[in-house]
Amino acid sequence: MSYKGRTMEAIAPTKSNLLSLRRQLVFAEEGYDLLEQKRQILVFELMSRLKRARETEDRVGVSLHSSFAALREATLDLGSDAIDRLVPGMAQHCEVKLSEQHLMGLHIPRITAEFSPENATFGVSGTSANTDHAVRRFRELLPCLIELAELDTAVRRISNELRRTQRRCNALSKIFIPTLRKRIHYILSTLEERERESLVTMKIIRDNLAKAGN
Fold this sequence. Notes:
two-stranded antiparallel ribbon; 73% helix; rod-shaped; Helix Hairpins; mainly alpha
């Protein structure tokens, strides 16, 4: 039985309604406890991944800086046209596999990548040590970028779920549960008042019967 949107005066102060409201209150409080546990786990997972994402982002920044510095040195050695001709021979095969990690009903992507062994198809002539260095630096950058993409997606999904969970916790703790308690209190007060009135009425009847008997 739902009482959403009804005033306390519109709820019949009966024992059946009291039992129904108490069941709803128990259910709501249990739901809140579960949501609060979920919220705490999500906060922990979010903070953990944010820390890793920041660390990975820093590594990517350092790696990008050194990779492009090496590329500039290689370009100075050979020229941009020669670098463009060498690029097809520097390609490295990468097999990306996607899987999922389940977290509190969320599907968090997990990305793994398998890189083929380095197998440059360009000759020794027409290259330089800086070219080899640039190739190695960019290949070392790939795993960091994949890890950062995985962490960024996980952080976004956990953040969205955390916001939804927090809204549900707030709705239960600040609106639904207090409303149920007020309605239970209203019915209890009304029933107690009726009981007192009934006792007073019974006492008056007994007194009147006693007087009539005399």
